[in-house]
Amino acid sequence: MTGFALFTVLYLFNAGTFLIDKSVMDWSPVAAIHAALGFLVGFWLVYDVVCRTLGRGPRGDAIVGAVLLAVVVAASWLACQLFAGRAAFLLVGAMLATTMSANVFFWIIPGQRKVVAAIQAGQPVDPVHGQRGKQRSVHNTYFTLPVLFAMLSNHYGWAYSHPHNWLVLVLIMLSGALIRQFFVARHKTEVAGKPAPWHWAIAGVVLLLGVAVWLAPAPVSAPVASGAVTRAPTEAELFVQAQAIVAQRCVMCHNDQMANKGVALHTPDLLRKGAQQVYQQAVVLKAMPMNNATQITEAERKLLGDWFRAVSQSGAVGP
Predict the structure, then answer these.
(1) What mean pLDDT value characterizes the chain?
(2) I want to staple 287 with a disulfide (CB 3.0 to 4.6 A). Which of 48, 157, 257, 312 is the partner?
């Protein structure tokens, strides 16, 4: 409940800033709010129907797992087509977390109460309550690590700002589920006296490493001269261009009147002092400006990076 309250205060009350990236989907805050809430409710309804209709029979769990995997992938893709990457990742995490809570509230706890009441009354226990409780508890177990990443993903701009961010999200969540499978299977192997099923953990870690290699920024190489020799711009020249970009794209939120996160960039000295933060947030992570509200271009980000490297070499970075 507190998590949903925080989501409401930050994302729904400020939908124009947090939910909407006009380069992804240019729509009204009201529509974005309704769509966000629809994700939370809609996934639970689809999930519940899938579990109740396809979860029976000897292969019911496998069928439900395959269908839910497809639904989660589709939801991740759709969220990244509608919302800002930062919001899309959080919404997918909230979607799964809402389902986990609903499992406990609507099925697991009520089922336990019915079983206890039947036992106390000396009546036969309906096995469906145990079957449903186990099914939903197992799903909650596998959702845990994917939810943990998705709900903390606002700290990882390199993930949600990627052109294929939906695939990044799916692969990292899948690796979390594989690692969780290792812990689940490990208990069974210990009871049976068998070796731990390390292949699950290894698969999850390898998948994470593969994503890390995929997302790693390309090394900055020196330009190859061709034809006439061109003079590289000096640090002072780059600073003038960088200051113009920051004034247009950043200063509106980082000035003496409104220094978000305690960062102000409205004077030359403050810009030099914050060079590391500008480089990290605007060039490396591409997390700023928030949801690219000021429409900074890739060329401008590159110029900021060139300036930072030049100013770093000159030793003028920092207070």
Answers:
(1) 89
(2) 157
